[in-house]
Amino acid sequence: MGSSKRLAAHYDMRSQHQEILAAARSGPLQSLTDRELALREQPVTIYPQPYRAVRAWVRFGPEAIRVDAKLARSTPSAAGIEFRAGETTFRCWVWGNAVTADDA
User: Is the pTM value of this prediction over 0.90?
Assistant: First the structure.
């Protein structure tokens, strides 16, 4: 029997959600601080829906994982992203170089 690309994508997504939820037990999702973002000095771009799909490194407590996310906003040096796991939506700011465009 052959495998379905649609089912493979579904299983990949489920696996990533399980990885995110496991990492979330390691500690809170970390986000850049107001001082790091310097929003009073930096312009902020807010993207309308649909957001751009990206891959990003995030950190829950001491554990770093790479997630499929949506780019919601950005500054010249940082990206505001959101991603889901199960019924939970996570939002945080990460450094811009922690994010790559998902061209798939």
Answer: no
Q: Band of the pLDDT at 1, cuts 50, 70, 90?
A: very low
Split into its structural domains, the chain has a count of 1
Print the SS3 string covering 52-85. EEEEEEEEECCEEEEEEEEEEEECCCEEEEEEEE
Q: How far apart are CA 65 and CA 49, in angstroms?
A: 25
**Range of 29's domain?**
5-101
Place of tokens 């649609």: 6
**In the structure encoding, which two tokens stand for residue 4, read together?**
């379905």
**In this structure, how many other beta carbons lie within 10 angstroms of the beta carbon of residue 83?**
21
